[in-house]
């Protein structure tokens, strides 16, 4: 049997995927790098808030800390990191104005004085 985190409309299909730990960890680093401008790495530290889906934690298991270390490595030195795990995120979908459930995502927000 399969369990889905959200509703699957009748007639839609699901695709099974296999996780790649290195890609998941690299994506966390890419997300942190995208949250700041690469030209401003020499600026003072910024407060970083990370929201990671619990699905990523389940997939990564013992390598969960690697994901956080990768994100921190892309931030200015001394940037404090806080965060939590969510059970999916509601956000606009790319093809319309309504919201959909996004699963196994990581969202990073940085706050700093310029």
Report on this model:
- The chain has 3 helices and 5 strands.
- By secondary structure, it is of the alpha+beta class.
- It has a 3-stranded mixed beta sheet.
- Helix 1 packs parallel to helix 3.
- It is globular.
User: Could you state the order of secondary-structure elements as H and E?
Assistant: HEHHEEEE
Task: Please state the CA-atom Rg, rounded to the nearest Å.
Answer: 16 Å
General form: globular
The helix count comes to 3
Strand order of the largest sheet: 2-1-5
Q: What's the pLDDT, averaged over the residues?
A: 83
Low-pLDDT runs: none
Please describe the biggest sheet, giving its number of strands, its sense, and whether it closes into a barrel: 3 strands, mixed
- Distance separating the two termini: 52 Å
Helical proportion, percent range = 25-40%
How many β-strand runs?
5
Question: How much of the sequence is in beta strands?
Answer: 15-25%
Question: Structural class, please?
Answer: alpha+beta
Features:
two-stranded antiparallel ribbon; 24% strand; three-stranded mixed sheet; alpha+beta; 114 residues; single chain
Question: What does the secondary structure layout of this molecule look like, with pairings?
Answer:
Layout: H1 21-35, E1 47-53, H2 54-60, H3 64-73, E2 81-86, E3 89-92, E4 99-102, E5 106-111
Parallel strand pairs: 1-2
Antiparallel strand pairs: 1-5, 3-4
Overview in brief:
The chain has helices spanning 21-35, 54-60, 64-73, and strands at residues 47-53, 81-86, 89-92, 99-102, 106-111. By secondary structure, the chain is an alpha+beta fold. The strands form 2 sheets. It has a 3-stranded mixed sheet with strand order 2-1-5.
